[in-house]
């Protein structure tokens, strides 16, 4: 999903701030969240949310247990941050399947997870504790390319048919036989109208000298470079090395001239809320979580926006492949997928979610009309996924980008 | 004979007493250092795979120096500025605590420590709020119409406190000040008040007594405080990350990036070594200038 600070304590602090702001919004939106409960959410934020749910009969078959590592705030939970509270998706799955789920929000950063877990563990032929991990698409492509991922038992996942067609023809895994997308999102531009004094429409508006020193970009390479490429009229999906370097030239100049204040992970939300930043590269779901009173606006630039998705994979040698298949099938049921969408407010890769939300009525039905959750065809045609890079190019581009981000 | 053998055991005893420390040093310092040095001289044939090849690749060091010169300079510059500020703020405070605070001393000492019961990160994030565009610091300056003045003297940039080099140095100063105050306080507190009485009896002016008695006797505290402040401040990257901008990155975040983003363990290890080497040389020079042998006595 997004780059998070690498320090666990810092991540916990920011996550706490996020939970609180998120809850504020959900309460406002009347989605049935109760009063703010600071204590438990503080504990949940610091504790990483592991160990919830009873372990059940530990000796019972290979597939009575399932361990999932996901990003934070990426599945429905109750006010205290309990993932398997009554009525949640995990609770419903445990009851329907008899599988006991250990759900951890410990996937904080693609590169970090790669260098701490994927590479040193899977790269040596050992197995991870998690049965399902949810990397972003380019990281999924990388580990699928390295053959560190299990083939999915599609026969046991009939709901795989509910995957939106656009995910089936990706070059790195045609037919999506080794991954199932979890949520998708859009990278666009966000701004504070009281500071900008106007609405932004173009990716180049981020380079407008009027906002000098009040613009942030994301440390996520593909988001910052992709939007800049749109502004330059080049195609991020083609991922041509010269075009990428031209975009990096532009970003580098803006960073050294002081146009770009800093490159951030999720912290950009705070800066935007506090008025330290006027305009920035932003993720669609994040802006949906902000307090509407702040008047922060989000748009997909007229030249185009970046689309990304995080996707479920089963790491090589995982102990509970059958239970993982049951879980994937369960969350690809439109009714279950709609419950998750209602909470996380990102784009669902599952067919029929919109109809399920409409059928639910009330606030859920309003979400079905949200163009950032269900972009129309005209919008969809402006969205692109960053193209694949060869390994050497990826390392070279990433290291140049790291030098620019300071 | 008997005298000689007792002398011999007498010589061995100190080593026996040292052994837990030496064991600790070997296990948790020398062994990790050795493996870090090994990685620093290795090559990773494939960045995505976990294997290294030890090839005496000294290039890692020259590459790291070439690439991270600005960050190295910045780290030591910011740390030096913060250390000097800590002395300027900390010395008078410690002096007051040691000589003037009287019965308030314990309370004031506690007040210095209390904020540090909160996490380092939470305190730094709090500074974002204090210094931010909506924060109280800027509000006060705006009410007093002082923003152009602070802009002119470089305290703010374009009317903002936050995300400036000054904010980073300020954050470092704030976070490490107690490590300066406490050692200075301890060394001042140890000074025998009769020395000052004697100075007065001998018609010394207070300023002279300070210069000739208090200052020299408190230098060990300043020395210890400087080490405790400068070294962690130079390695810190939280302040730069939270309070700085794209042009204030320090060496800690570059090492993290090399490890976690580029999977370039060898260069990250080399950069860590360079950083440690510079600090070691700096500390030795500093100790020489201040003459620790004399101070220790």
| Top CATH class of the largest domain in chain A | Alpha Beta
Give a count of the beta strands of chain B, DSSP E runs of length 2 or more: 2
Instruction: Kindly identify the CATH topology of the largest domain in chain A.
Output: D-Maltodextrin-Binding Protein, domain 2
* Percent of residues in β-strands of chain B: under 5%
CATH class of the largest domain in chain B: Mainly Alpha
Summing up helix and strand content along with how strands pair, one would put the structural category of chain B as mainly alpha
Q: Rg of chain A from C-alpha positions?
A: 21 Å
- Note the gap between the termini of chain B: 36 Å
Second-tier CATH architecture of the largest domain in chain A: 3-Layer(aba) Sandwich
What is the count of distinct domains of chain B? 2
Describe the protein in words.
The complex is a heterodimer of chains A (406) and B (297). Chain A is α/β, with parallel strands linked by helices and 406 residues long. Chain A folds into two domains: 191 residues, 3-Layer(aba) Sandwich (D-Maltodextrin-Binding Protein, domain 2); 143 residues, D-Maltodextrin-Binding Protein, domain 2, CATH 3.40.190.10. Chain A is built from 16 helices and ten strands. In chain A, the strands form two sheets. In chain A, strands 4, 5, 6, 7, 8, 9 and 10 form a seven-stranded mixed sheet that branches. In chain A, helix 7 packs across helix 8 and helix 13 runs antiparallel to helix 14. The N terminus of chain A is likely disordered. Chain B is an all-alpha fold and 297 residues long. Chain B has two domains: 42 residues, no CATH class; 232 residues, MetI-like fold. Chain B has a two-stranded antiparallel sheet. In chain B, helix 11 packs antiparallel against helix 12. The longest helix of chain B has 42 residues. Chain B is globular, with a radius of gyration of 24 Å. The two termini of chain B are 36 Å apart. At the A-B interface, helix 1, helix 4, strand 6, helix 9 and helix 16 of A face helix 4, helix 10 and helix 11 of B.
């Amino acid at each position: 999903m997004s780059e998070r600070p690498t320090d666990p304590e810092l991540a916990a602090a920011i996550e706490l701030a996020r939970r609180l702001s998120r809850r504020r919004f959900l309460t406002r939106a009347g989605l049935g969240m109760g009063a703010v409960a600071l204590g438990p959410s503080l504990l949940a934020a610091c504790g990483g949310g592991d160990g919830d749910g009873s372990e059940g009969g530990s000796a019972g078959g290979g597939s009575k247990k399932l361990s999932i590592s996901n990003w934070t705030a990426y599945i429905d939970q109750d006010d205290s941050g309990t993932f398997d509270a009554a009525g949640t998706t995990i609770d419903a799955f445990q009851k329907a399947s008899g599988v006991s789920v250990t759900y951890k929000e410990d996937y904080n950063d693609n590169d970090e997870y790669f260098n701490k877990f994927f590479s040193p563990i899977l790269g040596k032929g050992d197995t991870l504790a998690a049965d399902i991990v949810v990397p972003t698409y380019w990281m999924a492509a990388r580990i699928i390319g390295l053959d560190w991922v299990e083939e999915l038992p599609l026969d046991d996942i009939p709901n795989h048919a509910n995957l939106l067609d656009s995910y089936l023809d990706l070059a790195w895994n045609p037919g999506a036989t080794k991954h199932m997308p979890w949520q998708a999102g859009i990278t666009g531009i966000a701004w504070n109208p009281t500071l900008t004094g106007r609405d932004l429409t173009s990716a180049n508006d981020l380079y407008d000298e009027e906002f000098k020193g009040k613009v942030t970009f994301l440390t996520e390479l593909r988001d910052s470079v992709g939007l800049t490429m749109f502004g330059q009229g080049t195609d991020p999906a083609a991922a041509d090395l010269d075009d990428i370097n031209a975009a990096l030239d532009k970003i580098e100049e803006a960073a050294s001239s002081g146009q770009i204040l800093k490159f951030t992970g999720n912290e950009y939300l705070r800066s935007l809320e506090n008025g330290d930043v006027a305009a920035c590269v932003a993720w669609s779901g994040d802006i949906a979580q902000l307090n509407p009173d702040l008047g922060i606006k989000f748009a997909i630039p007229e030249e185009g926006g970046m689309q990304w998705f995080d996707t479920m994979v089963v790491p090589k040698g995982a102990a509970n492949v059958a239970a993982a298949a049951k879980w994937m099938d369960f969350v690809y049921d439109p009714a279950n997928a709609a419950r998750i969408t209602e909470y996380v407010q990102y784009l669902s890769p599952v067919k029929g979610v919109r109809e399920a939300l409409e059928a639910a009525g009330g606030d859920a039905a309003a979400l079905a009309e949200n163009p950032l959750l269900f972009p129309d065809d005209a919008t969809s045609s402006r969205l692109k996924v960053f193209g694949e890079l060869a390994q050497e190019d990826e390392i070279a581009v990433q290291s140049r980008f790291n030098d620019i981000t300071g | 004979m008997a005298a000689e053998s007792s002398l011999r055991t007498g010589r061995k005893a100190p080593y026996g007493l040292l052994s837990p420390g030496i064991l600790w040093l070997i296990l948790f310092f020398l062994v990790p250092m050795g493996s870090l040095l090994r990685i620093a001289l290795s090559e990773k044939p494939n960045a995505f795979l976990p294997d290294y090849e030890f090839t005496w690749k000294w290039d890692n060091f020259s590459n790291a120096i070439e690439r991270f010169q600005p960050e190295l300079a910045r780290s030591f510059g910011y740390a030096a500025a913060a250390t000097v500020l800590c002395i300027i703020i900390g010395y008078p405070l410690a002096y007051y605590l040691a000589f003037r605070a009287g019965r308030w001393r314990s309370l004031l000492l506690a007040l210095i420590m209390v904020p540090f019961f909160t996490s380092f990160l939470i305190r730094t994030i709090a500074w974002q709020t204090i210094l931010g565009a909506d924060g109280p610091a800027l509000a006060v300056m705006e009410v007093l119409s002082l923003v152009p003045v602070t802009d002119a003297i470089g305290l703010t940039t374009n009317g903002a406190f936050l995300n400036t080099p000054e904010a980073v140095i300020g954050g470092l100063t704030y976070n490490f000040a107690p490590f300066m105050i406490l050692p200075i306080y301890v060394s001042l507190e140890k000074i025998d008040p009769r020395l000052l009485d004697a100075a007065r009896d001998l018609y010394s002016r207070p300023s002279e007594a300070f210069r000739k008695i208090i200052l020299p006797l408190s230098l060990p505290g300043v020395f210890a405080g400087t080490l405790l402040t400068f070294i962690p401040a130079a390695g810190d990257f939280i302040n730069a990350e939270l309070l700085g901008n794209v042009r204030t990155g320090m060496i800690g975040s570059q090492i993290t990036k090399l490890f976690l983003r580029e999977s370039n363990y060898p260069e990250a290890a080399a950069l860590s070594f360079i950083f440690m080497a510079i600090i070691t040389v700096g500390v030795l020079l500093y100790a020489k200038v201040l003459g620790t042998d004399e101070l220790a006595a």
